[in-house]
Design brief:
Elements lengths: L1 H70 L19
Length: 90
């Protein structure tokens, strides 16, 4: 019975060691996957920030263009203020 117990124990230890190696490999793969995902998130954040910067520049350009179009028609005519002696409007 002692030899049988020894063989069973040896087999369980071997299976346990194989399981530890398998789990270690799975954890390493998971860690590698997480690192890749973190890098992708970082790149996406950078891309989103770049798009936000472009959006800001385009909005500023649109604002500047609208302001330029308003002033390109020439200066506004001054408001007519008749002199106190002018009775044209009375």
């Amino acid at each position: 019975m002692d030899i049988l117990d020894f063989l069973i124990t040896q087999r369980k230890e071997r299976e346990l060691a194989e399981l530890v190696v398998s789990l270690s490999s799975a954890l390493q793969q998971r860690d590698a996957t997480i690192r890749v995902m973190v890098e992708m998130i970082r790149e996406n954040r950078e891309a989103i920030q770049a798009l936000a910067d472009v959006h800001t520049v385009l909005n500023q350009n649109q604002h500047n263009l609208a302001a330029k179009q308003q002033t390109s028609t020439g200066p506004a005519l001054p408001f007519y203020r008749p002199s106190p002696d002018d009775d044209t409007w009375n």
